[in-house]
Write a structure and sequence with these properties.
The protein is α/β, with parallel strands linked by helices and about 260 residues long. The chain has 11 helices and 9 strands. About 40% of the residues lie in helices and about 15% in strands. A 6-stranded parallel beta sheet has the order 3-2-1-7-8-9, with helices on both faces. It has a 3-stranded antiparallel beta sheet with strand order 5-4-6, with helices on one face. Helix 8 links the parallel strand 2 and strand 3. Bound molecules: ligand BJW and zinc ion.
Length: about 260
Amino acid sequence: MTTPGLPEAAARIRGAEHIVVLTGAGVSAESGVPTFRGTTGLWKSFRPEELATPGAFVRDPRLVWEWYGWRRALIAECDPNPAHRALAELALDRNGRCTIVTQNVDGLHHAAAREVARLREVPPDPAYPLEVHGAIHRDRCSACSTVDETPAPVDGTSELGLPTCPDCGALMRPDVVWFGEPLDPDTLDGAMTAARTADVCLVVGTSALVHPAASVPTVTAAAGGAVIEVNLEPTPLSGHADVSLLGPAGDILPRLLESAG
Ligand code: BJW
Ligand code: ZN
């Protein structure tokens, strides 16, 4: 199958010294993880202000935990797809000259990197990828800095079943970034530094609407780099992209990165 723009995109990737990749929910859609926007996205059935803001958690922590419990269980059944694997291979091949920045909280990039490292018999990079919106499988305290990397399943049916902090007694919450919350400054700084120094920014499966993550390609473009977009459909970024590849990430990325060498 031919994809218009693919040879040009592959040539730009081949010639790039540094690459930054920004991924969004679309990269995990073929794994079965729902996206947020669009006709089948989570925000069609659930209101973000009732579930994904600090105010929502203060008003009704049980409801928020019920929703996150449902999503955790759904994601636990999902495996990385060829797009996650192709990016993990790209990062390993480029040995520090490719930074993957993901808005996804599902851990599937990390799982793909572990798989690829195991097959190649090299140690996985524990810092891969930069997860700018956190990780859904972790809990963190809503009041202090305590984090639980391996929490027990949460019973979101009653407020009494919600987890509390072993250090200060406040409610634990999912370790994700909600609307109106700042991103972790070191992670964001890593993403923006990679964006500034990249010759190519590859943007995969994101509506490119949510800031500051959506600024990653604009930062690369402002520093003189090229922007390549992979998405099922045009986005607000498409008009500014140097190459726009339309199609599923799980089909396009393996062909693109194979062709880039
Ligand atoms: C495929 C595909 C396939 C499908 N192949 N493609 C104006 C008004 C109000 C607020 C703001 C404003 N301007 C800026 C803001 C701030 C706000 C923001 O950006 N809002 C905009 C929406 C307007 N940003 C924030 O609040 C951020 N924080 C912040 O700015 O802090 C400042 C601060 C500083 C100091 C003190 C205090 C504050 C935080 C944003 C956090 C976003 N959180 C969420 C939830 C994470 C947790 C969770 O998962 O529960 O992050 S919202 C949701 O959107 C999630 C995603 O990471 C994020 C981006 O979504 P994404 O990944 O782009 O998904 P979709 O669904 O939108 O798109 C999928 C795409 O894939 C589509 O294009 C499809 O076509 C495509 N696709 N299948 C290829 N197979
Ligand atoms: Zn605490």
